[in-house]
Write the structure tokens for this entry.
Amino acid sequence: MLYGSTMGLLDGIERLINEHGSSVILKERIALANDKYPRLNRSFQHLISESTILRLRMSVFALILKRRTFRSTNSKNESMVTKPSN
């Protein structure tokens, strides 16, 4: 009977040791995450800004290309139209 109660006591101690160890590790991980969060947030905001700038540039280039294509198509069409002779 003594053996059974001793094992129960050791199980409780082992559980406390594991929980305490886990809480220390968890605290360290939370502290690390808290330290990295501002840097990661700045990096994320920088990437969002860069993405926005690249999208705007892409839109501008698309408009320029569309304009050039339109001019090219118009000049070809104008050359195909015959002018009436007077």
Q: What stands out?
A: Residues 76 and 82 are 12 Å apart (CA to CA).
